[in-house]
């Protein structure tokens, strides 16, 4: 539970739906329903997704710290028709299954495991419920049937579409995105290969499966599979109700996925589904948007090991988590080697402050100025988090007293010139914030992240040996590592390593 003496302000959140900061008032206190759009498991976890899930991990942790009973639901998209804002579409899981010559569920299992492993390395708490799209086909069919009955869905040759223009006559379809509907209609390309649709903005609720399609289920409209948007509406309704408190995800989901979620839920349940919409911002690399086409997109494992060409070296999961939390979740986050190295120093400094603080005892003398500084720190931590979960502000509050704590631990020989009660509250508050709310933890010499750092050094030494044409040393390093289960892989982009 929060320290009531310093938890003075009410929690406020920025609501995308209203475009304003609002006092957080749950629909059914002390219960809070939280839904976050999870990964589509057809490839290795994307760093942008990781930023979203780390951010909502902190939001989940802080709500629980405030005493709320949170039900955190984060789905797994393991089937369905994925649509982009550009209108591109496809079943990526089936496509990847064909590429790897395996069953779709093998792809799902492989990349679901990879996703959970990465999330564990970032020290995120697992969701309370992690539903899958394939596990809720019946719910998606029932919701689609209800949308048809409401007059906003229509079936054509085994496909079911949502009639956006008809819905827009009765409801503000673009309320969440703030876009102009007429401009959207004018700027959306012709139906092209989608002549079954009545309108350009109509989207699929259910798709007729072609004979070669790997994933399909029976439905009132024939064999097929669900559209992308319907799954989140169906699962959030099932586990959190027709109305719930918080829906989260990345900013890129607003124009299409989240806008369509709102429309579907209103069409089916006849109510606004979510009270507060929260969105994380995008990642950039050296000021450019992170993108595979630009060659500046790297995976979490590449970030940890330092094997991507844009990285000087690897950075531990806790360094990256600290780096992510240095910026507000709704701000753009720019990855640079300089910023990551600064974050590494900041993370180590913060963990050192926690360690030093636990060993400090009262000196028997009370310095009023130091007491004021300590109290201001504790107020600042809560003020930061109550200001739309502003971890950067909370970090700053801790850094304000970091020098004082280090003085107590070093020059003060482990003694603080504040009263015992204030010291105890400071120790408790900082420990709870760093470990339980920020979700940071100590990284010891036994961790794999240290191995990553050692391997970066070994690869550099081997590179120097090869440049000097000392192939005997180069081969000895490679062969010796091979005997302990570490394989070096040389390519035109450099050397990478993997542990068997």
Characterization of this structure:
By secondary structure, the chain is an alpha/beta fold. The protein folds into three domains: 12-151 and 230-280, Rossmann fold; 284-437, Isoleucyl-tRNA Synthetase, Domain 1 (Orthogonal Bundle); 448-499, no CATH class. 46% of the residues lie in helices and 16% in strands. It contains 16 helices and 19 strands. It has a four-stranded parallel beta sheet, sandwiched between helices. A four-stranded antiparallel beta sheet has the order 7-8-9-10. A three-stranded mixed beta sheet has the order 14-13-15. The longest helix has 22 residues, at 337-358.
Q: How would you summarize this macromolecular structure in one to three sentences?
A:
About 45% of the residues lie in helices and about 15% in strands. It is built from 16 helices and 19 strands. It has helices at about 45-65, 90-100, 105-120, 135-150, 165-170, 180-185, 230-240, 255-270, 300-305, 315-325, 335-360, 370-385, 390-410, 420-435, 450-465, 470-485; strands spanning about 10-15, 20-25, 30-35, 70-75, 80-85, 90, 155, 160, 205-210, 225, 245-250, 275-280, 285, 290, 335, 360, 415, 485-490, 495-500.
Beta-strand residue fraction: 15-25%
| CA radius of gyration | 26 Å
CATH superfamily of the largest domain: HUPs
CATH overall fold name of the largest domain? Rossmann fold
User: How would you describe the shape?
Assistant: flat
Spatial gap, N to C terminus: 44 Å
User: Percent range for helical residues?
Assistant: 40-55%
What strand order characterises the main sheet? 4-3-11-12
| Structural class by secondary-structure content | alpha/beta
- Could you list the spans in which at least 5 consecutive residues all have pLDDT below 50? 84-88
Number of strands: 19
Number of domains: 3
Let me know the average pLDDT. Answer: 90
Number of helices: 16
Q: Give the name of the CATH architecture of the largest domain.
A: 3-Layer(aba) Sandwich
For the report, how would you describe the main beta sheet?
4 strands, parallel
Output the CATH class name of the largest domain. Alpha Beta
């Amino acid at each position: 539970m929060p320290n009531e003496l310093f938890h003075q302000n009410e929690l406020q959140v920025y609501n995308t739906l209203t475009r304003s900061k609002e006092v957080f008032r749950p629909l059914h206190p002390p219960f809070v329903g939280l839904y976050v759009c999870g990964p589509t498991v057809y490839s290795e976890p994307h760093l942008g997704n990781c930023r979203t899930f780390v951010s909502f991990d902190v939001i989940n942790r802080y709500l629980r710290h405030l005493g709320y009973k949170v039900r955190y639901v984060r789905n797994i998209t393991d089937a369905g028709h994925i649509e982009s804002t550009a209108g591109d579409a496809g079943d990526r899981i089936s496509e990847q299954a064909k590429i790897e010559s395996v069953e779709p569920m093998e792809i799902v299992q492989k990349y679901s495991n990879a996703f959970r492993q990465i999330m564990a390395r970032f020290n995120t708490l697992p969701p309370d419920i992690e539903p899958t799209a394939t596990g809720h086909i019946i719910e998606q069919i029932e919701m689609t049937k209800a949308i048809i009955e409401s007059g906003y869905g229509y079936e054509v040759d085994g496909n079911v579409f949502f009639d956006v223009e008809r819905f827009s006559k009765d409801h503000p379809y673009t309320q969440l995105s703030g876009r102009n509907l007429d401009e959207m209609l004018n700027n959306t390309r012709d139906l092209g290969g989608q002549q079954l649709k009545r309108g350009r903005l109509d989207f699929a609720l259910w798709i007729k499966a072609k004979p070669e399609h790997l994933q399909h289920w029976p439905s009132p409209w024939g064999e097929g599979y669900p559209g992308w948007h319907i799954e989140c509406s169906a699962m959030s309704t099932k586990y959190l109700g027709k109305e719930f408190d918080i829906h989260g995800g990345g900013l890129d989901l607003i124009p299409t996925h989240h806008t369509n979620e709102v429309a579907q839920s209103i069409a089916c349940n006849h109510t606004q589904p979510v009270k507060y919409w929260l969105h994380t911002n995008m990642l950039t690399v050296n000021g450019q948007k992170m993108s595979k086409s630009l060659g500046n997109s790297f995976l979490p494992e590449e970030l940890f090991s330092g094997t991507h060409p844009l990285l000087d070296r690897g950075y531990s999961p806790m360094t990256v988590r600290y780096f992510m939390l240095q910026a507000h979740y709704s701000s753009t986050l720019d990855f640079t080697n300089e910023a990551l190295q600064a974050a590494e120093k900041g993370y180590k400094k913060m963990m050192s402050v926690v360690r030093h603080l636990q060993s400090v005892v009262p000196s028997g003398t009370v310095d009023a100025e130091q007491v004021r500084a300590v109290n201001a720190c504790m107020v600042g931590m809560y003020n930061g988090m109550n200001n739309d979960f502003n971890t950067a502000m909370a970090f700053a509050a801790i850094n304000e007293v970091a020098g004082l704590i280090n003085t107590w631990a070093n020059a003060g020989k482990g003694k603080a010139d504040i009263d015992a009660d204030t010291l105890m509250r400071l120790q408790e508050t900082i420990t709870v914030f760093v470990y339980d709310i920020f979700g940071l933890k100590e990284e010891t010499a036994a961790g794999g992240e240290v191995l990553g750092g050692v391997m970066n050094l070994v690869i550099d030494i081997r590179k120097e040996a090869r440049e000097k044409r000392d192939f005997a040393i180069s081969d000895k390093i490679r062969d010796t590592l091979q005997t302990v289960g570490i394989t070096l892989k040389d390519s035109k982009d450099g050397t990478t390593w993997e542990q068997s």
